[in-house]
Specification:
- It is a single chain.
- This protein is of the alpha/beta class and 418 residues long.
- The protein has helices spanning 2-14, 63-76, 81-92, 116-122, 134-145, 170-181, 198-217, 237-247, 255-263, 296-315, 331-334, 337-345, 356-371, 402-414, and strands at 16-18, 23-25, 37-43, 54-56, 59-61, 103-107, 125-129, 150-156, 187-191, 222-227, 232-236, 277-278, 284-289, 319-324.
- The N and C termini lie far apart (43 Å).
Length: 418
């Protein structure tokens, strides 16, 4: 908790808001005057989808078929059992899909892994904030029109295109949201944006200020984040036990892998989870490191800031939905040749890479579960917020340390035609 609080303080004090006149502190009460923002409302044109449906490998899974697939994912170690339990709870409570009494403010509304398409289908009320780029705003409008919900969209009065860029138009975004909060039922600040390089950190700093401001103004506010599986996490004891069991299973620890481990002097296919320890409450944990160097330090920092805010907010009694999402074939991945190669070979190592439509549907349902109190209770440790109900795609239940298998997966993936 000290690391998280100090990290957020360091971000806020080191980052500055650049204006034509001067650099200002990143403080909601010290922002310059904002230009006027107008509001447009978009209404869906379809009937609400009143049951959870998840597209998967050419099928639309619902009901028993979806429950069976959740069981298969748990058995394969692709998702944690509590994640499947939370999704099953949503299947049994379809009225929760529209999030009655909540308004979800989507920062990065058009993101591939974002929940907009699904929330719109389910009839939820949303506020969409994304860059004022015609193609991006057209995608947002299309998704909302195809659904049954309602979306509120901002636009600078001096600009024709809808949208706000939270890094370049932070004063306008904060002022506009302040004006909306009084009439907004149960605001949920959901950050789903992505950007390359340092822009990702800038967006994250702006979004963190917005989140803090909304939580300060409304005691019923909630926060929502998607954590990347390519980070470091505490792993619960059940996952550690399965990983260790797989180490002695010849189906996993095959002769070729043992040979490569020997030839490489133990660098390849090295055993994972050699050690574990217990927290103050007596719960057993191990640590997994799945940070990927090719994603760079800006990405790592941006995602870590979101985790810091999530654990601090949860400790302060704020409702937080912060879930590890599975790796998916998004554009940010496919344009990176190394990651794309690893992903193509991932299934050989028990890791499932999801289609974005499948992953976003599952994570939108998990958001509903978290906001509707349908998620199983968590352990006391702050980092448990990300652990027991993660959808890590299989990374946590590997018998090998991820980095010791990555080079072989990358080489194997390069030999597979895209």
């Amino acid at each position: 908790m000290t690391i998280a609080r100090d990290g957020l303080t360091a971000l806020r004090t080191r980052m500055r808001l650049a204006t034509p006149q001067e650099d200002l502190p990143l403080d909601a009460d010290a922002l310059p005057s904002a230009r006027q923002v107008e509001t447009t409302t978009i209404l869906g044109r379809s009937n609400a989808v009143k049951r959870l449906q998840v597209p998967y490998r050419g099928q639309l899974l619902a009901g028993t078929a979806l429950l069976d697939q959740l069981c298969r994912w748990v058995e394969a170690g692709v998702v944690e059992p509590d994640f499947a339990e939370a999704i099953a709870a949503v299947i049994g409570e379809p009225a929760a899909l529209s999030l009655p009494g909540r308004t979800v403010v989507l920062l990065g509304a058009a993101a591939a892994m974002g929940p907009l398409a699904h929330l719109a289908r389910w009839g939820a009320d949303v506020v969409t904030i994304d860059v004022p780029v015609p193609s991006v705003q057209a995608r947002i409008e299309q998704l909302v029109r195809e659904g049954s919900g309602r979306a509120v969209v901002p636009r600078l009065r001096t600009r024709q295109d809808s949208g706000l860029s939270i890094d370049h138009e932070l004063p306008e975004t904060v002022a506009w949201l302040r004006s909306m909060l009084a009439d907004m039922p149960g605001p949920v600040m959901a950050a789903h944006f992505y950007a390359d390089g340092g822009t990702h950190v800038e967006l994250t700093a702006a979004a963190d200020l917005i989140a803090e401001e909304v939580c300060r103004a409304r005691d019923d506010a909630a926060l929502a984040y998607l954590a990347t599986p390519t980070d470091s996490f505490l792993v619960p004891a059940d996952a550690v036990r399965q990983a260790r069991a797989r180490w002695v299973d010849p189906h996993w620890n095959t002769l070729p892998r043992r040979a490569l481990r020997t030839i490489s002097g133990g660098k390849l296919f090295r055993r994972g989870f050699d050690t574990s320890s217990r927290d103050e409450a007596g719960a057993e944990w191990a640590v997994i490191n799945t940070l990927v160097d090719v994603q760079g330090p800006n990405y790592a920092l941006a995602k870590r800031v979101q985790r810091w805010r999530a654990v601090v907010a949860a400790a302060d009694g704020i409702t937080v939905s912060a879930n590890v999402a599975p790796s998916a074939w998004t554009h940010s991945v496919t344009k990176n040749k190394t990651l794309a190669a690893v992903f193509r070979a991932a299934h050989h190592y028990g890791v499932e890479i999801f289609h974005p439509e499948t992953a976003s549907a599952l994570m939108a349902a998990k958001l509903v579960a978290d906001l509707s109190d349908l998620t199983p209770s968590r352990a006391a440790h702050p980092e448990a917020l990300f652990s027991h109900d993660a959808a890590h795609g299989g990374l946590w239940r590997q018998p090998f340390t991820p980095h010791s298998a990555l080079p072989v997966a990358a080489l194997r993936g390069l030999l597979i035609r895209p």
